[in-house]
User: Fold these one by one.
Assistant:
Number 1:
Amino acid sequence: MENDGRCPLHVHAFLALSLDGFIARKDGGLDWLPTENVPGEDLGFESFLSGVDVLLMGRRTFQTVLGFGQWPYGALPARIVTSSMESRDIPTWIPGNVELTRKSPVDVLTDLGREGFDSVYADGGLLVRSLLVAGRLDDLVLTRIPILLGDGIPLFGPLDQDIPLAHVETRSFPSGLVQSKYSRSTRNLPRT
Amino acid sequence: MENDGRCPLHVHAFLALSLDGFIARKDGGLDWLPTENVPGEDLGFESFLSGVDVLLMGRRTFQTVLGFGQWPYGALPARIVTSSMESRDIPTWIPGNVELTRKSPVDVLTDLGREGFDSVYADGGLLVRSLLVAGRLDDLVLTRIPILLGDGIPLFGPLDQDIPLAHVETRSFPSGLVQSKYSRSTRNLPRT
């Protein structure tokens, strides 16, 4: 169903983090993430991905994905929020529906709603954090990997005030991963 | 059953932390912890407490507890690890079986084993972290409160190397708390 611009966009995040709250090592390294697929262990990412119609990603996460050498998001349209990259910095193997933008994440959401998108996958620590602070993140799936890294790129950071969240559900997996879904709390500030 | 000194002590921690990993605000404040008892919601702390026979606590956490105005650990013997406090700094309303020590946490564990203790409740961020690093923490119950504080006293900190942990179990509660138990991983360094 196409958004006719009258309904608010829904914005979702789906992130893996260490027990001490890092989404990557200082250099962006993800070697500590489990790489083996445990039979029968479906973390739900494919299902999550099938429920969104556009990807909104921060520049640093985009550069990490460029290091993978393949684009894991299929034909999903994507907007990359960056003040430093130019179109010519996008490798030719990246699909044509990946666009850079210099707008703020919240302004990009406004554009995406006008363009008829319904459901946004927000990715990247800084970007997710900025949407949390703006009250624009509807829900957040956190998958905790049972490891302490000691240092790295944190998901969370300083805030002007507490942000309470509402717990939706938690699942644990044979491999030791614990996945919790949180949504915006009714105790939060109203959307701006 | 009294420890005859031939069996290793078991060391356990039980901590509440915010989603962004803080155990207290910068000033030690715990106002963000849920204070209402939700009917039927047993977080298991009483059961945990009945399974230990001595408390090992860091100085900063001890001072936070002093601020409560009552000692919540009943007749449990306690050792407080501090390099700055003196016996005269302990208020008179604190039970007589609370002792200060200037030894390192690991050395105190050696003493406690010799004294016949079996099962240690380790409390305080720095202390728990030092025991984790030393490979002397057997298990760790983390209860995540669904709130982001942005700043405070973190449970975890810098490490010389990764510390993998083994997930034991996870429970979630109607109030939104998520409690996970982790134990030392077989991938960890051997005990020193």
Number 2:
Amino acid sequence: MTNTASHAWAALAAHHREFGEKHLRDLFRDDPDRAASLSLSFEDILFDFSKQRLTQGTLDLLVGLAEAASVPEAIRRMFDGERINTTEKRSVLHVALRRFSGPFPDARTDVMPDVLATRGRMAKFAEQLRAGKSQGAHGMAIHDVVNIGIGGSDLGPKMVSQALRALAHPTLKVHYVSNLDGAQLAPLLQTLDPRTTLFIVVSKTFTTQETMLNAETARQWLRANLGGEVDLARHFAAVSSRPERAAAFGVGPERVFPIWDWVGGRYSLWSAVGLALMIAIGPHAFDELLRGAERMDEHFRATPLARNLPVVMGLIGVWNTNFLGAATHAVLPYNESLKYLPSFLQQLEMESNGKSVGSAGDPVGSATCPIVWGELGNNGQHAFFQLLHQGGRLVPCDFIASVRSDYPLPGHQEALLSNCFAQTSALAFGKTAEEVRESMERENVAPEEIAGLLPHRVFAGNQPSSTLLLKSLSPATVGALIALYEHKVFVQGAIWGINSFDQWGVELGKAMASRILPAFADPSLASALDASTRALLAYCRRPS
Amino acid sequence: MTNTASHAWAALAAHHREFGEKHLRDLFRDDPDRAASLSLSFEDILFDFSKQRLTQGTLDLLVGLAEAASVPEAIRRMFDGERINTTEKRSVLHVALRRFSGPFPDARTDVMPDVLATRGRMAKFAEQLRAGKSQGAHGMAIHDVVNIGIGGSDLGPKMVSQALRALAHPTLKVHYVSNLDGAQLAPLLQTLDPRTTLFIVVSKTFTTQETMLNAETARQWLRANLGGEVDLARHFAAVSSRPERAAAFGVGPERVFPIWDWVGGRYSLWSAVGLALMIAIGPHAFDELLRGAERMDEHFRATPLARNLPVVMGLIGVWNTNFLGAATHAVLPYNESLKYLPSFLQQLEMESNGKSVGSAGDPVGSATCPIVWGELGNNGQHAFFQLLHQGGRLVPCDFIASVRSDYPLPGHQEALLSNCFAQTSALAFGKTAEEVRESMERENVAPEEIAGLLPHRVFAGNQPSSTLLLKSLSPATVGALIALYEHKVFVQGAIWGINSFDQWGVELGKAMASRILPAFADPSLASALDASTRALLAYCRRPS
């Protein structure tokens, strides 16, 4: 039975019919205490979901759904190391990556010796670089580290490097290259000195097209600029589960860091995939990041559903998606340093749960992951918030801000927070026609002008949002925040009956690309392709 | 009568009922010629919409809708300078900004003398800076230009600066600061030399909170670092429609560049708002950008609807949104240099048409602007494309690529284009259960494994997309591309009966922020605020 066929689901559907379009204005009027009762906190994170379109009664029913969907059992199975990634027959153990002792998940299948040994090797490598003791082929200290990876081998470390850039090494710079488009790598190379540049090639299989092509271009650039006889291995490190391929590329074994099949790319920033991040912020801050995530893991594992942040956050998403009918979910950080968080969460959520077939191969029978999108909130106010306020579309939002700035300037932080809170409030409560009329009359606007403008100045409100208010962007808080979203995704996957840890949907495009590429060199191969692709290829061949 | 009540709308609704879920596989099988017939080109842009879920018959009905909605009349009225921004009683003349001669819109209301004079002043100012002849208070040449603006005073110039960065001045650097968060401006200032830095403060009203606070911080930084008695005016320029306020801030009149009330922020990159861009790429390339846009304007004004790129693009969006029911629209550039295009289009589309009240104040009666979102396509493949392929949500996509790279590297560009074309093809045609079975059997996968995995490896396909294939990222092509989207938005606004040129939805949040800010200093003021805001403020005050 799919979870949508459960009594708990039916009870929520009935509750929704009764709840209807009940307005947040009325919900706050009817329950003056809801800001306190509909919020949770964990360490330095306040999660205020009082401006979601639900009541305590809704939450109780949602917790019932989580129980009916065996969410507690799913959590236990993940932490016990069962093979919950069923289509790939693998355990899912990214939580091991932020542990500091073993055995885990149990004495028989303990992964902690590998995890801790690798983390120790990473720390040693990072410390050498940070101390200026790692030298290129000409004996000069490395000053620039370029992470070459894409998807999970890029977004996580890049996002956290930006989030914690206030802690970055003062002179050693870390860069991220992912795109096949030469317009990313080529201009970067123009700014780098090959004698002092190290490339970290990150690919689980060490066959990822984008990564291997960028790595090959990096090698050519080094060879062309360092002279033919030098030891290029001093300019490379690698992260892969296929060390023999990294060795064949020319990376010395002591610079190849393993990853394992029990961690998916989008959950891997805590592993050696985070090497560039560790180099940027140092092993100590990296450990703090892990410890924050580990404490969130423990909260997730041990806290009753109704007070469990990832569970409640996941359930709110299910309510918005499956009962209120939201097609999208906006992520709006009010921290410049979190500017890559929306892209990171796009992958985390949409690659994990953007599926319509359940673990057992049956259709899910309900909507699953919404489109996750967003931008820095303050910038969004001056761009697309118009639609959130008056576009008539339901768009649940996560507002994320920190109390203390990581780069304080006089007057900026309180103004920033005022805007963040004001937007959540304006979205929730809106402005009625009566309120617009009153305020225009107070401004002595002429009656005929009021009549013309009034409908344009009404705000329907009732746009739901949660606010995640962090004390600061400390490594531990950033770690906890990411783990919170990871587990939220897991909860939703469990409720939708999805395996959140595979990604079969990326295969077809890769296969098609490999059929199209040869047709650039040999146009006769185009005849096997579809008519549109043939036309696009023909356009490429036109003389300009 | 709203346009949704027209016969043309009803005819489309009937056509849609008949059309149903007809699959792109079948559409291509039934009409082998559709790649040619369902594409248009304009100069160096190929617009292939053959992978949209429509036929020539659909297009004919859509053109009928455009006629019924008086789109040709709307176009004429805009170019004639009528006050089509009805709520603000203004003409809409951004097209004037890319003209090179007058009179326009007519001899009586000619704006071209102001436009051309301002463009000439901009060019002179830019050339001086580019030649190293503009000096700071200590007599040193300016090396860094910081554009301080937000929304339309940021996204357009920033997006095009990135798009045309291959043409950027080799040593003079342009930066963009928008966010209230000090974490944007403060780390930038750490990298700049105050003696050689110029700030351009861009705000139509010269009261925008974010911009004025960042400008004030910049002034304090200059004062603290340049000494008390120097002439700070040599480090500032301004773009505003309120020159007296810029003067009061301390900008010399010869460095204040005007904008006018007939151009909205999101349409203003062609004006003095583009000053930082002009400084980056030079007046000649800036002129080429304008000329490309001007030629697209002429195409839009003079081409019959069925062959008119912005009209057809707009109509396809209406078909997807209002008849197929798409809630979002993805923009997926396969050019690293177009990485800010999704953010730019978010503003352009969502701020223009994210409204549910028509020009006359009545409810629109149909869905309007979808959520516009996106990322660099190649990166998206390794992140969220899973959902596009198998998530079960209809997401129309614009794929944008250029044949020639702006930063060519051996082997990169053809691999990149192969991926772009492959994704559009995989999304459109998918992979059936039979095809999956065949391919797994060919790989000798065991029958029980085929049974288990098959449903996960099926791709439903029928995900519609358009491909915009550019010959290269030349200034003229980039200008034409932006004008194409601008006019597409205009067409959709006309069909939905919306005034695309106001933005009343940004007002309420601003007003609320100004009520919340004083409560940081005086907690007693919080009592007038809603319960959630009070709780958030209380959390901010907690000792950490």
Number 3:
Amino acid sequence: MLPYKNLIIIKDKSQIPVYKQIAVQFIGLIQEGKLPPGALLPSTRSLAFDLQLHRKTITAAYEVLVSEDWIDNLPRKGYIVSKDLPLVRPKTFRQNRSNSFSGKGVPNFQKLNPVLPHHFKENKGQIIIDDGFPDISLLQAGVISKQFQKSLDYFTYRASLRKPVTEHYNLQTSLCNYLKQTRGFDIETENVFVTRGAQMAIYIAASLIIRPGDKVIVSDPSYFIANAVFEKLGAQLIPVPVDEEGMCTDMIEEILKKNDIRMMYVIPHHHHPTTVTMSVERRKHLLHLINQYDIAVIEDDYDYDFQFKYDPYLPLASDDHGGKIIYIGSLTKVLGTPFRLGYMISTTEFLEEANKMRRMIDIRGDVIIEEAAANLINNGDLTRHIQRSNKIYAQRCDFLSKLLFKELNDSITFTKPSGGMAIWVKFNPEYSLEKIVNKAEKSGLLFYGSVYAKGEKPLNAFRFGFASLPEDELSTAVEILKNSIN
Amino acid sequence: MLPYKNLIIIKDKSQIPVYKQIAVQFIGLIQEGKLPPGALLPSTRSLAFDLQLHRKTITAAYEVLVSEDWIDNLPRKGYIVSKDLPLVRPKTFRQNRSNSFSGKGVPNFQKLNPVLPHHFKENKGQIIIDDGFPDISLLQAGVISKQFQKSLDYFTYRASLRKPVTEHYNLQTSLCNYLKQTRGFDIETENVFVTRGAQMAIYIAASLIIRPGDKVIVSDPSYFIANAVFEKLGAQLIPVPVDEEGMCTDMIEEILKKNDIRMMYVIPHHHHPTTVTMSVERRKHLLHLINQYDIAVIEDDYDYDFQFKYDPYLPLASDDHGGKIIYIGSLTKVLGTPFRLGYMISTTEFLEEANKMRRMIDIRGDVIIEEAAANLINNGDLTRHIQRSNKIYAQRCDFLSKLLFKELNDSITFTKPSGGMAIWVKFNPEYSLEKIVNKAEKSGLLFYGSVYAKGEKPLNAFRFGFASLPEDELSTAVEILKNSIN
């Protein structure tokens, strides 16, 4: 309901009778679009009360509007703005548009580089190749809704409401134990910081560390949204190539000798996008450099939990780094999009600032989601889910690898990963991935955040996320890809 | 489970028998804290498999560890790290701490000003005065959980998963209609941008507009977390006093004449913290200035929905501003902390950049929460909830006003607000609010984000959030306040 009391002003001294004054001002509201077609007008009784007038006066005004086809009087519904106002609509709508949220618009704001490829509306029957999402159909809906019910309990969230923003959540404690067991960290609850997703952790850490003009070492290629964040914060990116052993640490050493480096962003485990895992030698070398040159490091370990053969390396952060490494992980990769949850492990001093930064960005998290996630960790559902998922993802990875080898081996190169949710597929130079993608999309195969075919030196490669696709969809996808080559 | 395959290395040529090599390396893991007291060791079978050894060898190794009190063998549970390792624990823990997340820590990161007052742990029986939170006990838990069940439905969120980040949510459409009806905006779904909360909307809008050194007009006093954001982005704040008619627009005009102003942050409706609502004359003047000087404006309208008497003014943004105003609102203020949801209304051009910025911060929102909120809007539960809340908040506001007048009238000044969730209580200069707060907290009355008693020119005032407190708690609160004065 609009505040008619302030919108409809009655001039007592006017020549125009009151009911006409009202009618005219309603026409104004309709023409301005403040009362769009189909909008319900207030009842004669309530408007009479608001305007302190006799109800007969309002009825008279409405009758004028009805007779002039501005409004209709629907039985058992009341007066609504007429759905077709042919004469006025086009004019007034356009005119009014320019009055509100178009026109010249917000003066002189920053344009950012796109951080995701072009958008598209999904139609039925299409297959989307993502860059490595979990298959949330593996997460038994029953299991989750039970946890949601729990955290929805009125007392739980009334309590949560009263809890100050910086109070520890259960999730913080649950994560702490989970990470001790799986990552071999020696940490306290105070070293755990819960974020919306790994992305927010990256953003917060970077904005506390990076100042305009700072030099930041990133891998080449690297996770493009992280790069976008660093650049938005004014960083100068110094790319270091990735080979089959991970980032080239010798080159990093050369760079550190010659430059004043502010921060390093590394993905030693299942590097994004290439899925390469850094070798032991490189890890030792990197740790040595981190300590020798005393630089801040973000270790992005987004899918440590997904191992097909049981042999991950512990994160860099579990080794000796004197608190210089900020370790970032994701629960979204485990539980799926409905849980936008990630975490940052660092010193209490750093997390205190991270806490302030987070409050500027969104005060606090979703109590219900975080409680549900904590319960899933505590009762072991999370671990069971990961084990179940790993079995299935391993099968899908195997299935896709065989398929790619069988169908596309002459046109692509790829290495079957030891875990994770995606295969890094590189097309041979004679094929243009950009063309292939465009052609494939016409046949209903869409790529989401996974294609590296643009930029100065296009990689002609994409991340083939297999985790979220059942085998039949994987087959269709590869078939469409094959047909899109020529 | 730790990746023992890589942690436990067997030297074939070693003099030491294999079972002892294993035992020694487990002791290492325990001393480093990678295996904390109580941690479960892998079963002899699974470890034998991982290390490709005979199971008897593992058993022998475990027997050594048991005999040396490193681990215990619990019936039906297996081998766990002994809970008391008096000789080693203190030393190894401290030593290991300094190896992981303490030590010197992240080099040279930015220290931010605190954006919330000192934290506190809540104990039973305490009363917290917030700066204006809703009482979520008014939101029928049944109503919500029904909506959560709906959005939890597997198909719903599988679909949501497949939906690209920038795809429209139902919530966007629902909000668009809701805002058209309540704010008189002439907008399309494309003009609506959903965020985590009003806070994130403020952060995103500001970071697209403000560049280091830019001059930003804010009210004095103003919402302190918004100020913190602008300063973090490098803005120079230009404060404009607030009187009983809102921000002094004459002073704004003077400032605009003399300075190159980048942005203006205004709260015309229930100003935060003072709860003053800007007069019609000032609104007209302000709109005139905005258009004349062509500056970007953030209109923060966090509690428009809470009106005790039915006579709000429409937002500035509903009037003619050519898209220069970015309108920000909150659903958290309506639905309570569990729903961290806000929105930004602006031109499609601006929201396109906002979308990129948001993806850098946290990619996307919580599907489940957003779906639930959309349903609450569509089926009318939201409006019913607002109407119900307004009745109760009006009573509590009335109750508190009478109480404050009766009990504290000689020591404070305040104006009963026409809506919202808080009363702005100003203590007379002869009383130190800081002292009062400290004394009150000893008696179990805590203040959360509501006290303006610090800084260069302390206001000696606080926001008395009445919405979340039932009458008995309001009485106790005022009683404690009274007793804390002397």
Number 4:
Amino acid sequence: MLHLNLFIFGCGHHRAAWRHQASAAERLGDIGYYEELARVAERGKLDAIFFADGASVSHIEDGPRWYLEPLTMLAAISRATERIGLISTVSSTFYTPFHAARLVASLDHISGGRMGWNVVTSMFDAEARNHGYEAMPPHAWRYGRAEEFIDVVLRLWDSWADDALLLDRAQGIYGAADRIRPIHHHGDHFLVDGPLTVPRPPQGHPVLFQAGASAEGRDLAARRAEAIYAVAYDLPAAQSYYRDIKRRVREAGRTDPVPIMPGLVAYVGSTEAEARAKQRELDELLPQEASLRQLGMYVEQDCMGWEMDAPVPPLPPLSAFQGPKGRYATILRIIEAEQPTVRQLLGRLAAGGGHCTMVGTPEQIADQMEYWVHHEGADGFNLMPPTLPGGIEDFVDHVVPVLQQRGLFRKEYETDTLRGHLGLHRPPGR
Amino acid sequence: MLHLNLFIFGCGHHRAAWRHQASAAERLGDIGYYEELARVAERGKLDAIFFADGASVSHIEDGPRWYLEPLTMLAAISRATERIGLISTVSSTFYTPFHAARLVASLDHISGGRMGWNVVTSMFDAEARNHGYEAMPPHAWRYGRAEEFIDVVLRLWDSWADDALLLDRAQGIYGAADRIRPIHHHGDHFLVDGPLTVPRPPQGHPVLFQAGASAEGRDLAARRAEAIYAVAYDLPAAQSYYRDIKRRVREAGRTDPVPIMPGLVAYVGSTEAEARAKQRELDELLPQEASLRQLGMYVEQDCMGWEMDAPVPPLPPLSAFQGPKGRYATILRIIEAEQPTVRQLLGRLAAGGGHCTMVGTPEQIADQMEYWVHHEGADGFNLMPPTLPGGIEDFVDHVVPVLQQRGLFRKEYETDTLRGHLGLHRPPGR
Ligand SMILES: Cc1cc2nc3c(=O)[nH]c(=O)nc-3n(C[C@H](O)[C@H](O)[C@H](O)COP(=O)(O)O)c2cc1C
Ligand SMILES: Cc1cc2nc3c(=O)[nH]c(=O)nc-3n(C[C@H](O)[C@H](O)[C@H](O)COP(=O)(O)O)c2cc1C
């Protein structure tokens, strides 16, 4: 049984998707659009929808780099859906644990036990400067804060016993004061007395996702996360991350499943040629000059004269490259594996960046997903459709049925909670 | 034209309301309950529903002193309603302006321009201890922070021009970077660079409510609030507050209407006797011992031997009282005006405390409301029904039609925004 989330982002994860005639560029402030997407995902019996989050906006010329605040969106979406999980990113660097615990707990009540939170430590100085910092605090400090943050949030959720409310009209006793306890937290980062102002969430704890890439991030995920988002360009990269995380989870003494879900950008067609044509149609919408300028920054050379439909000119090896290595390594790998034209390379970078891309018929895509799941590459996927709603409609209507026929994916929801969909137990109250 | 908000709180504003057989005590974690209440209010063409907020919980034995987080509730409720305004309390002491601006702006988009925020500076040490403080910071500091907070929030809302999005597919230009500007705020309390991450709200600025009682609170309201909640036990108290605020508004150089809305606890019956019976039925649900113990704390003497259905024994005058004067003055006033029994006094204190109570037929209540509105007591009312949903159904089905017949209240919504309902103009972009 694999797990599938839909990562909802703007008009789709391909940067030029908004320029497509069929895009919903006009509707990004309209909650009805997101409700419709969530309903498509629910029709496909997906485990959850997921929103990323950030506190800065830039390069608005290029595309819809903004979004409504995800917690408020999910509250609305919860009323337009019935079973699907709802995951919001929450930054432990910018939120405080009391607000986070309360907002997410309330959403778990509102949605009847369908909430998850993806804890991130945030990245950009521009975000920090909206929250009282001159620049982004150091990585280690952020991870220290994240760990204490998670700790406090979990304790706040447990500050009400599951049976704290008595509702005894006859005796006039509404609740049991001794089943609602302060937490008296006084740590390096936070001072929080508790208790929380809302009863224990239906799931006990809304599900904790994490997506750490660094050693600190992986360790935090291994100790704390109940499900993990990954970035894996291909199966070897996925396997290396997967095995590393599973080892860290075991070393942390945990026996719960901790599903790992790499991002997946899928172009689905009734033939392979049709799928490739969809990809090409989007790639052709990329603005040539801006894309070449950006590529020039990634590879640290002038690309403005490069021929769009010719193969990418040879690039120096990773060892000789002085700039940020992560993205450069991805570029070298795409060139080695796919011998792309310049346009194709730009298209790959413009849709999911370092995430895995699959292009083909529903069977071909299902084959690859199955192979990853059976070879320690993934326990499921975080779907990042290049276009929305088209890309998720294609996936739900054509790939999901193939996965279902093969017994790899549920035909019906078997539970009503995100925790249930993911096969996670409900943590007992304290 | 008067304005009416519904202040939604638990099973109603009477402390014993949850014990009534018809109460929704079991449904306080069920968002459907609040959606139903909002729909009743919308059926009555009310201007808005309103949620208070706080960050601590206590005395859970006595009743439902908890609630879901209001911003997430309102996101859900916005999808179950179409025209009614949606007001959430937001504490400027515990939120940061970037989070507040973003959450409320998103809600204004989600609701299509129906959001308002009631800015409060918060009160209790127990709340402060959930947000990193050892105790509540001083009153003046909190009001200084509130003023800077409002300033930053408004500037963040204005950081996007109304026409910042171009959506030019053909040219590949999504937005106009020069119409989205940082705010570079660096003040005593906050460092916020901006811009906000969401486009300018449909209303320009979601409507700012305030409810200050102190001189600082009144001044802030006069300078900044677009509508004001008040506490007024009777018409003279309402007039004194009303005239004082209107004077301060004029002195602040403002010409906008700034409607003032005192709280109103109404018991509605088809006869006056029926209304009084409803009140008495609730008062009889008050737990005798706990209520007398609490009264003992308010008046600083032992009340445990007081006879419930006898008149309240004589109390020392205000000048001789050593404890907190506000509530004691209210108690003396209730005794003077109504010569209540002990049970009746407890009932008055248990439903809205110092807020105005009206008991009678729809016509009697409409008469009093009309009198207040025509004599500088109020521009509208913040309805605090003793029971929910019963108390608001009574009001909407019986009092609202009388107000409508007299031309005092709208028969249909004439606009789609809270700003429109309140007769406030839309602030132009900067
Ligand atoms: C699928 C996915 C979603 C992510 N969403 C966010 C997000 O919404 N906000 C954010 O600041 N970071 C997000 N990240 C980034 C990670 O949380 C993390 O910061 C990044 O992987 C770098 O890890 P490190 O800090 O351990 O080096 C996401 C990563 C992945 C793979
Ligand atoms: C109708 C109404 C609603 C209020 N809601 C809240 C609230 O939700 N949270 C809160 O902390 N204070 C709330 N208050 C309290 C006021 O904002 C304010 O703190 C109080 O009137 C004392 O004013 P002062 O601080 O100027 O002395 C409310 C007051 C009124 C009249």
